[in-house]
Amino acid sequence: MPGWGPPQSPPGKRTGLIVGVVAAVVVLLAAFVVTGFVTPGFLLPSRDGSGTAVDGGAPVTSPSEPPSESAPPPSGNVTIPTTRTPEPHRATPLPDPSTCSFPADPNGPAAKQATRPTDGPQPASGTVGVTLRTTAGDIVLSLDRALAPCTVASFVSLAQQGFYTGTKCHRLGVTDLQMLQCGDPAGDGTGGPGYTVPDEFFPGLAYGRGLIALANTGQPGSGGSQFFMMFGTTPIPPTYTVFGSISDAGLAVLDKVARGGIASAGNAGDGTGPPRIPVTFSSVAVG
């Protein structure tokens, strides 16, 4: 969410954002059959407000709204807002340090096995600078431990292990869901690090330009390595952990990628797909 729509309890490992509410499991299964998708995954919301697997998982559509068949806009014809979404803040600060646990992913072997962060206390204050060096340009992030100490600890650990090096961003949305989804070692939205990250979202979260959030499968505590960077409109429910912000220079890189357009519409059925301008991580530097 990001390459997938809202997550379904999937046997697969795709990561995505959930946009929309599905009334029953039967309806969800029916949606999979009708749309031809059988592999669940990480989800992100679709352009029409329906759920769509985001991290590479199959999209889940609303029973009242079929998947969008419209093609993404041509390169360059993308409207991108220039105003940043305010960075969220917790009304009640988390305990500092906060206790985190990173259980093994129940969905099977990882596409690329990583060493799990140590369970236990993690700092819940301060920020961490991260530079994503990509084939499209450098994207500098500021990760906020006060927002999501466990998510930041996991991201920093993966970066320091070289987990993200060589991976590509597999899902771009340029219309209503304006984000770039990355972090999957499998490159198709189904991969993860072999462990899960606890949810750290909270009521009232608003998503949009300049924020970075963790993708999930729609199931509790199903985050992993996949994340999405928002450069524009992102109308999704507050069920994705926001853990930092993107620099102005980083947003300029994302804007360039967005204006380059989508190479081909993916299986999400919501107009998202791989970016025409490839975004592959050559390295991820912490500090």
From TrEMBL:
One of its GO terms (molecular function) is peptidyl-prolyl cis-trans isomerase activity. PPIases accelerate the folding of proteins. It catalyzes the cis-trans isomerization of proline imidic peptide bonds in oligopeptides. It comes from the Bacteria. The lineage of its organism: Bacteria, Bacillati, Actinomycetota, Actinomycetes, Pseudonocardiales. Residues 43-129 are annotated as: Disordered. Residues 134-286 form the PPIase cyclophilin-type domain. Keywords: Isomerase, Membrane, Transmembrane, Transmembrane helix. Residues 64-75 have a biased composition (Pro residues). It comes from Amycolatopsis saalfeldensis. Residues 76-85 have a biased composition (Polar residues). InterPro entries: Cyclophilin-like_dom_sf, Cyclophilin-type_PPIase_dom, Cyclophilin_A-like. The chain crosses the membrane at residues 16-38. The keyword Plastid does not apply. PANTHER family: PEPTIDYL-PROLYL CIS-TRANS ISOMERASE B-RELATED, PEPTIDYL-PROLYL CIS-TRANS ISOMERASE-RELATED. The keyword RNA-binding does not apply. This is Peptidyl-prolyl cis-trans isomerase B (Cyclophilin B).
